[in-house]
Amino acid sequence: MDVISRVALGQNKTLQFNNPNVELVKQVLYVFGNNPFDYWAHIFPKIGPFLKKVMFAIGKFKHIPIKECVNQLYGTVAKRKAERSLTNSNEEEGKASVDFIDLILDVEDNSVTDGIFQKTNMKVSKKLTDEEVVGQCFIFIIAGFDTTANTLGNTAWFLAKNPKIQQKLCEEIDDICGNRDEISYEELGSMRYADVVMKEVLRHYPVAAFAASRECQQPTTIGPGIEIEKDVCVALDLFTLHFDKNIWGEDSDEFKPERFFDLSALQQMSYYPFGGGARLCVGMRLAYLEEKLILIKILQNYYIRECSETEEKLKQTGNVILVPEKVTVVLEKRKH
Known about the structure:
Number of domains: 2
Number of helices: 14
Radius of gyration: 22 Å
Low-confidence stretches: none
CATH architecture of the largest domain: Orthogonal Bundle
Largest sheet: 2 strands, antiparallel
Strand content: 5-15%
């Protein structure tokens, strides 16, 4: 949460282990898709926007985590707008720090309306409304907080279960990073084995599979006469797609990071833990950077080992975000 708050939301000092957003976001994730408003909106999608207004109206008199989180983000966006205005007036914009919230405010335009964009032979410029700016921040903080942590838990389990793969990863870290505390962006980018390990973990457990869902903006037909009406939500079955033996081979059930060194065109189109296309997860690269850095810091000093209590299989739970029920491993001090 501290990383997300500082990188994305303009928090200018560390609040690690004392960040008030942690408990609030946990509450949001707990009730997400698990309350009567979501229940009836799923049964009757057309009344969804009305139910949203009702829920937010009730939030004025009753604690509703999503409402509180959104209100805080509106306040954060307003504060950053004021800071940017002051910075510009002092002509010190080049000296100011720039984070994610600045990037999305740069494309703010409340006059824009959403719709279908024809991109053939033309340049499309999509601006963001106030509501969309807050929505992007909301997704960043909700998805960025839990997904990276859960993926790291899954990664620790796979490394404990596959010591030879872990050894290769440790060797790459030793070769590129050594025991240095500071790791450069270029060094992170050169760690190819770390890349394929993370991708293989996400192939097995795409923690944010909901990112591959879309809303159809105009009637269309796909495949063998499958008609999809306007405003219909479509979700991709990643768990079938990521283990399809016709795509990934007979060893699709195995943990084999090396498969990502030479993906076929079909495999590239079938790997969707972050969604794809124009609405690819905005935090994908940040998630990879976070996980790489944390793995480096751990594996510079420890091996992740299996023990008598380590799970034979990981049990995944959760509603919107996939969560390992528990991950039990031990850390063994490395001798350099």
